[in-house]
Design a protein that fits this description.
Length: about 375
C-alpha cells in the first residue's frame, strides 16, 4: 500500500543556454536508441518545458530513432546542444521541417499545431500533438494509452495522421478514475485541481521563482505570465472564462472525459486552481458510481493498475504530494475513502498527484509513439 516516498526538489529546466546538454538520467556510455531501423523524429518546441521533457523521456525509454530534427522558433534557431552524445543544431520550424519525418512530437502551442500539424500529416508524419488544437476534432484520436488504446486502431507509421494528447489535468484524473470506472461505472465526478506553474510552461516556472525571491526581499512581484501575484497566493486557473462560468481548463476536463470514455452522459464538474507549486498537479476527485464499490476493493484495484502507485498510509499521514511525483512516471493516488455524503458504497473520494510535464504531456505522447513501433 505504501509507495516509496522520495522527497526532492523539482528539477528546474530553464531555457537552453547556447550550448548545453539536454537532460538525461541514463548512463552515458551506451546508446541503443540511435538505430538505422528506427523512425525519424521531429520535436517541435524542443526548447520548451514539454520539449525538454520529450528528450528526457525518449532517452529514459530507449525509444529507437534514426534521426531527430530539433525544431523551435526563429529565436532559438542556430543554438547547439548535445543529446545522447551527439551535437544538434536547433532549426527554425517551417513547413519543410517535416520532409522525411515519420513521427512529429508537437509542443509549441495551439496556433503552431493548427498551422503545421496538418502539413506534417500531409507529408506522411504521425503527429502527436500536445496542444488543444485537435483534441475535440471528430476522427482525431484522443489517447491515454492505459485508458483507451483502441483509439489508435489504424494509426501507423507511413500513413500521415494527427493524434491528440489530452489535457494534463484530464490525463491525471482519468489515470486514477478509469480503473474504478471499469468496475463500478462512474456516473458523476467532482474534480478540484491544484495546478503547478510548470503547466503554464518554462516562463511561468521562472516567474514563480522570481516572484518568490522578490516577495521575500520586500519587492513588488513581476507579473508577466500571470496577471496577478502567484508566489504566496493561489487563484482560479488563468484560462478564459466561458459564458457558463467555467473556464477553458475546466471544460477540457468535461469534454475530453466524454470523448476518451466514449460516454456523453458522464457528468463532470471541475474547479481548476493555480497554486504556487513549481511542478506536478494535484487533484481531489469525488466519484459517484452506478454499482457499489467499497474502499478496500477500490484500493486493491488502484494498486494493480498500470501507471499508478498508491500512497495511502493513514497511520503516518502519508499521501501523494507534488514533490513525491515530480520527475516520476507514475500517477500517485491516496486519501482513498468512502464519500460520507453518499449512501452506501456508491461514492468514493481520492486525492491524486501527477507530474503533468511527464505523464501529463511528454511521457503520454512518447507512449503513444511507442504504440506505432
Ligand atoms: N507544460 C505542460 O505541463 C503542458 C502539458 C500539456 C500540454 N502542454 C502544451 O504543450 C505546448 C507547449 O507547452 P510548454 O509548457 O512546453 O511551453 P513553453 O515552455 O513555453 O515552450 C514553448 C515552445 O514552443 C516553441 N515555439 C513557440 N512559438 C513557436 C513558433 N512560432 N514556431 C516554432 N516554435 C515555437 C518555443 O520555442 P522558442 O524557445 O524558440 O520560443 C518553445 O520551444 C502548449 O500547447 C501547451 O498547452 C503543456
Amino acid at each position: 500500500m505504501q509507495a516509496a516516498t522520495i522527497h526532492h526538489q523539482p528539477r528546474l529546466r530553464h531555457r537552453l543556454p547556447p550550448t548545453t546538454a539536454a537532460p538525461s538520467r541514463r548512463p552515458t556510455s551506451i546508446r541503443m536508441s540511435l538505430r538505422d531501423d528506427g523512425p525519424s523524429l521531429a520535436i517541435v518546441g524542443v526548447t520548451g518545458a514539454v520539449g525538454q521533457e520529450f528528450l528526457s523521456v525518449l532517452s529514459d525509454r530507449d525509444f529507437p530513432y534514426s534521426s531527430i530534427r530539433m525544431l523551435a522558433s526563429r529565436r532559438s534557431a542556430g543554438r547547439r546542444f548535445t543529446f545522447e552524445e551527439r551535437e544538434y543544431v536547433i532549426e527554425e520550424l517551417t513547413p519543410d521541417s517535416f520532409d522525411g519525418v515519420d513521427v512529429a512530437l508537437f509542443s509549441a502551442g495551439g496556433s503552431v499545431s493548427r498551422e503545421l500539424g496538418p502539413v506534417a500529416a500531409a507529408k506522411g508524419a504521425v503527429v502527436v500533438d500536445n496542444s488543444s488544437a485537435f483534441r475535440m476534432v471528430p476522427g482525431v484520436p484522443l489517447v491515454i494509452p492505459e485508458v483507451n488504446p483502441e483509439a489508435m486502431d489504424g494509426v501507423r507509421i507511413g500513413k500521415g495522421a494527427i493524434v491528440a494528447n489530452p489535457n494534463c489535468s484530464t490525463i491525471i484524473c482519468l489515470m486514477a478514475a478509469t480503473p474504478l470506472h471499469r468496475v463500478a461505472k462512474v456516473t458523476r465526478m467532482v474534480v478540484d485541481t491544484y495546478q503547478a506553474a510548470s503547466g503554464a510552461g518554462a516562463a511561468a516556472m521562472e516567474e514563480l521563482e522570481l516572484q518568490t525571491r522578490e516577495v521575500l526581499e520586500g519587492k513588488k512581484p513581476t507579473c508577466k505570465i500571470f496577471s496577478q501575484q502567484y508566489a504566496f497566493n493561489l487563484f482560479s486557473h488563468n484560462s478564459a472564462l466561458q459564458s457558463n462560468g467555467y473556464n477553458e481548463e475546466e471544460m477540457k476536463l468535461v469534454n475530453e472525459t466524454r470523448k476518451i470514455w466514449s460516454d456523453n452522459d458522464i457528468k463532470v464538474t471541475p474547479t481548476c486552481i493555480r497554486v504556487p507549486v513549481m511542478r506536478a498537479h494535484a487533484e481531489s476527485i469525488k466519484l459517484q458510481f452506478e454499482k457499489p464499490l467499497d474502499e478496500n476493493t477500490a484500493r486493491e484495484i488502484l494498486s494493480n493498475a498500470a501507471g499508478l502507485v498508491v500512497i495511502d498510509d493513514r497511520a503516518t499521514n502519508s499521501f501523494p504530494t507534488p514533490l513525491k511525483v515530480s520527475n516520476k512516471d507514475d500517477i500517485a493516488v491516496g486519501r482513498i475513502r468512502r464519500d460520507l455524503s453518499m449512501d452506501g458504497d456508491y461514492g468514493l473520494s481520492i486525492f491524486v498527484c501527477g507530474d503533468q510535464i511527464r505523464k501529463g504531456a511528454a511521457l503520454n505522447a512518447v507512449q503513444i509513439a511507442e504504440m506505432l513501433l
